[in-house]
User: Which sequence fits this backbone?
């Protein structure tokens, strides 16, 4: 693996040297590729355009990120920014100099890349959704094939930029981002064949959330009992990150786990509160209401996103992260549509009088 890692470091150095002027672009791409964008931007848009697509987005993102966490615990992947300092591969030879950035110092294991896996899975869902919507209108075959080609090429370009950005930032090795893309597409393809998620009850959502949480925690405790420290990467991040402020507690595996569980629970609760079914979907189908729901959701979610919590009390931090993620899904699925529909109905009633 050292040889493979050394090739990855050489590529990172090459990118940092040859594409120095693209630093801001790579940092922006890496930030947008985070699942945070899916939860706070893509989901509220898709949910009010095509609710089934919005639901699938969350399931693919949450289950994919949960699987990513488990794989990271199993594969023990290194990250370039600390590996280059600790490896004996270079011996007396001068070690390559890797730059670090404000989003380099993630604290979890590196393989597979969560950014690559999440963006690939979510991107796959959105591309197939657009193609499905267009296919329903029965376009000319040649135009449809051209659209297919353009969308898949666009997704490929996006994933290339995501992979380059993660290597450029010294957060991942090339093989980690490639495995992430493949894993993300596999998860998305599996969920394209799963139908029960669209009619799942609140009880089912709670059951799945609890099962995923208990499995991850149980797996962690089991490995810890046999002497495996799954938080070994946190010490490495704290040791080798050039700026201690860049080592963020919300990038730890358990912080990610609680956010995802909160998201899945929030989706189930929001759908339950809104009485989600086909009738409800048709009831609020007017363009003006959907547009209003999207606009208000995006604004309120950005305000919610500004809420941050101190990590001094870890248990409280995890609890608040769970609650924040749940609220982020309840807002666009139940609260905002309910309020907007109530205002719309009241205005219509007053006009009729």
Assistant:
């Amino acid at each position: 693996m050292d040889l493979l890692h050394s090739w990855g470091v050489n590529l990172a150095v090459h990118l940092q040297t040859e594409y120095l002027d693209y630093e801001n672009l790579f940092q922006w791409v890496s930030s947008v590729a985070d699942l945070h964008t899916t939860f706070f931007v893509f989901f509220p848009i898709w949910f009010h355009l095509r609710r089934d697509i919005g639901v699938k987005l969350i399931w693919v993102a949450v289950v994919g990120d949960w699987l990513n966490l488990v794989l990271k615990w199993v594969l023990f992947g290194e990250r370039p920014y600390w590996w280059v300092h600790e490896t004996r591969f270079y011996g007396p030879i001068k070690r390559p100099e890797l730059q670090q950035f404000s989003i380099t110092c993630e604290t979890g294991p590196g393989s597979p890349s969560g950014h690559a896996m999440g963006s690939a899975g979510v991107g796959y869902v959105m591309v197939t959704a657009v193609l499905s919507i267009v296919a329903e209108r029965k376009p000319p075959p040649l135009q449809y094939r051209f659209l297919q080609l353009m969308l898949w090429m666009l997704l490929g370009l996006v994933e290339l930029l995501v992979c380059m950005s993660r290597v450029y930032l010294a957060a991942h090795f090339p093989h980690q981002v490639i495995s992430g893309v493949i894993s993300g597409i596999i998860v998305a393809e599996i969920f394209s064949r799963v139908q029960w998620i669209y009619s799942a009850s609140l009880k089912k959502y709670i059951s799945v959330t609890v099962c995923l949480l208990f499995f991850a925690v149980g797996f962690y405790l089991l490995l810890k009992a046999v002497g495996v420290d799954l938080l070994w990467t946190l010490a490495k991040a704290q040791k080798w990150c050039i700026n201690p402020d860049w080592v963020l507690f919300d990038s730890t595996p358990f912080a990610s786990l609680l956010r995802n569980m909160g998201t899945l629970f929030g989706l189930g609760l929001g759908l339950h509160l809104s009485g989600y079914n086909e009738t409800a979907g048709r009831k609020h189908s007017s363009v003006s209401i959907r547009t209003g729901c999207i606009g208000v959701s995006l604004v309120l979610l950005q305000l919610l996103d500004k809420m941050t919590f101190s990590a001094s009390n870890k248990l409280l931090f995890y609890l608040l992260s769970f609650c924040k993620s749940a609220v982020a899904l309840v807002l666009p699925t139940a609260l905002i549509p309910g309020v907007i529909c109530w205002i719309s109905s009241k205005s219509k009633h007053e006009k009729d009088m």
In short: The chain has one domain: 2-343. The first helix runs from residue 2 to 18.
